[in-house]
Amino acid sequence: MTRMNTTPRSDRFHIAVVGKRNVGKSSLINALANQDIALVSSTPGTTTDPVYKSMELHPFGPVVLIDTAGIDDVGELGEQRKNRSYSVLDKTNLVLLVMDGSAGLPALSVDTFDEYDRKVVDYAQSHRLPLVIALNKLDTKEAREKYRNACLFLPAEGTVSRTESSVGRTEGSAGHATSSAGRTDSDVDRTESRTERTESSPGRPDSDIGHTESRTERTESSPGRPDSDVGRTESSVGRTEGSAGRTEGGPVEELGGNRIPVVPVSAANREGIDELIDTINRVAERASRQQESPPIIGDLVEPGDTVILVCPIDAEAPKTRLILPQVQTIRDLLDHDAAAVVVQPNRLAGALENLRRPPALVVTDSQAFKEVAKTVPREVPLTSFSILFARHRGDLSQFLEGIKALDTLRPGDRVLIAEACTHHPVEDDIGRVKIPRWLEQRVGHLEFEWCSGADFPSDLTRYALIIHCGGCMINRRQMLNRLAIAEAAGVPITNYGLLISHVNGILDRATEVFRNASSTEAACSARKECTCDV
């Protein structure tokens, strides 16, 4: 219970529950949570905005269930609701597609899916998101038994296949495939300009937003694509790789091999819910391993090391509390058996003198970089909380590449400053005042725009540079999604801490500690391998 209550939302595994109106998404969430947390009505369109529920999925751990509006909503407001539902997928670690099985399906084949369900399957597959299908409203045992252990079969290339599944088909039927079924012009953030990009482009993830048709020739043996991708079966009982039939007997043990699990349930009667939870647990466990973030700081120190954390208490610091990146860094140090000494900038010199040996690392709030760099001896590694989170939440190499754009900024260029949290700007605010002032002192007059919270422009082409905060309030997948959108638009993106260290002439020093960290290299290539990437 403690972990459920204390784990920040940004560190929880996000499960988006999507589907058409009135298929029972809210009822299913209530059944999964075993409490009435979502409003249920037979009137289509009851859920308008995404609703987030933090809970514990036993034995997996802390998760966030996201209830969404129907993907077949209509009208002007309905279109906005649909867009919000799809925007949820930017931060989702697993998609739970809910379908209405009460009308009966001749086969669990993409051929039988309408454009709405097909688009979700296509989106999840092309963005390499793990997917589970809950076939709801099967209120009799006979109806559920018909779909027991069923799977939806997809091709290895990452596009939806019209492959026959088990129900109503003969064992071993191979089905037939089509390319890009159900793709529409409105698919989230796909850009035609990406068709010229190739797999050999350095630092570009296989699963970036804007997957192009040119990528459909990839096979499961493609470099960087693990054989154990979430949603593919390795050893489903009684199946061969070409089999399209349904396994008789026990539940499907592991899902891989490009087979999407389909679980028959009745949310109203709470039948099949345990089986659905078991399936989600298995898929989530594998996904979490592949989507795991590098440590915040633990791989940069050794057990027994002492790290000094410089934490200014100023107008932006929450009363009686430290800010989230500081708290999470302290916890990560404790988890890795290191000691944290927490001081304000004016106490740093005294803390250094009181230590019997130099600290293994000094981490500072980026705004105090200049003062701290003068105090800390050159031989002591130095970085900032923002730079730690640039690696922990995103891709440090891409942020570093974005710094180069400072040398090409020209007067009149438009710069986007993005913050993951929402707060009222204070006097001399870092994002609204300080960074713009520093840049204009360097370049001349610039046009600045700001976005905060979940807002992030889909069209970035008008910007010469994006400067992002550390991202402690969003999860890794959402940050990687933003990086991918920027890359697709050809717009450089960097990070508060990296920019501030560069302005103060200490960028090399502030990033030196990461050069020998093994997980930094892994983090820089993680987007090529993990299913969380878009």
Count of helix runs: 16
Q: What radius of gyration results from the CA coordinates?
A: 24 Å
Q: Give the mean pLDDT.
A: 76
Helical content band: 25-40%
Query: How far is the N terminus from the C terminus?
Result: 32 Å
- Main beta sheet, described? 7 strands, mixed
Number of β-strand runs: 15
Principal-axis shape equals elongated
Poorly predicted ranges? 1-5, 157-257, 521-534
- State the strand order across the main sheet: 2-3-1-4-5-7-6
Estimated share of beta-strand residues: 5-15%
**Helix/strand-derived class?**
alpha/beta
3D architecture notes:
The protein is an alpha/beta fold and 534 residues long. It is built from 16 helices and 15 strands. The chain has helices at residues 2-6, 25-33, 75-88, 115-126, 141-146, 273-290, 324-335, 348-354, 369-375, 385-393, 396-403, 430-443, 476-489, 496-503, 507-511, 518-529; strands spanning 13-19, 51-57, 61-67, 94-100, 131-136, 151-153, 259-264, 306-310, 339-343, 361-364, 382-384, 414-419, 447-452, 465-468, 493-495. The protein has a 7-stranded mixed β-sheet with strand order 2-3-1-4-5-7-6, with helices on both faces. Strands 9-8-10-11 form a 4-stranded parallel β-sheet, with helices on both faces. β8, α7 (324-335) and β9 (339-343) form a beta-alpha-beta unit. The radius of gyration is 24 Å and the shape is elongated. The chain starts with a helix and ends in a 5-residue tail after the last helix. Residues 1-5, 157-257 and 521-534 have low confidence and may be disordered.
